[in-house]
Design brief:
The structure is a single chain. With about 290 residues, this protein is of the alpha/beta class. Strand 7, helix 3 and strand 8 form a beta-alpha-beta unit. An 8-stranded mixed beta sheet has the order 5-2-1-6-7-8-11-12, sandwiched between helices. It contains 11 helices and 12 strands. It is globular and about 55 Å long. It folds into 2 domains: about 170 residues, Rossmann fold (3-Layer(aba) Sandwich), CATH 3.40.50.720; about 120 residues, N-(1-d-carboxylethyl)-l-norvaline Dehydrogenase, domain 2 (Orthogonal Bundle), CATH 1.10.1040.
Amino acid sequence: MRIAVIGPGAVGGVIAAWLAQNPALRVEVCARTAFDRLEVETPGGPLTATPRVLTAPDQAFPDEKGGVDWAIITTKTYDAAATGAWLARLVGPDTRVAVLQNGVEHVERFTPYVDAARITPAVVDIPAERSAPGRVRQRRDGTILVPQGAAGQAFTALFAHTPIKVSTTDDFKTAAWKKLALNCAGAVNALTLKPSGVAQREPIADIMRALVAECVAVGRAEGADLPSDLPETVVAGYRSGPADGVNSLHADRAAGRPMELDARNGVIVRLGARHGIATPVNAMVVALLEAAAA
């Protein structure tokens, strides 16, 4: 079975390295920068893999089946167009596409490039940080959640040999909005350039609660079943986790890279406006981070 992982950053590097441990899977990674091998420091020890590394879409040659079995997208949400160029080369008649990205618009983001029926959206919780191309620290085995159905079961089977817990849900919308609640609160880390431990400060925790409360209101309007205590749950999660944890929005701003701001906070503002729901705290965060990036 041929698997292409598009975007071997922190999460993509972990995914590709673990999949490559199964000799029945032929793993390729589609990257901007070439590297010799994947080295992942996992909770259980070092993990290495040597998948084929492609650095341009024209290097992706269709095989006799006309495409890969799975194209797994782990790029940043703002890289949809560049990812589309890879999909044009990798997707054949029987290819399935899994989107492992932030936000709640997994399918909508890629319907310009592939039919929606082929897309399996995924909620990913694998804390990991990339230090260099092909070099990743995986803090926890983590989880992946996909919709129930034939595609979801097939995706789950890919990870049977790994410690990553991959499972299906019959309410993917709620799962995606719960993850968005966690992610939107992380904007305070990007603003302060402080790791997760900053949530121990009560004024910071209050801002996080306000961000999540707006997310809950908009998510419910979108049809997600979100509990009223989710703001407190999110803050408690930040406080109980590693104090030196760095989320991707924080890491990207610190490195001067583009941020997934629209997928993590902007989407709450956009969809809130559609439903007539005020989201002033998320709007403020978006405005401040956009100004900082400019």
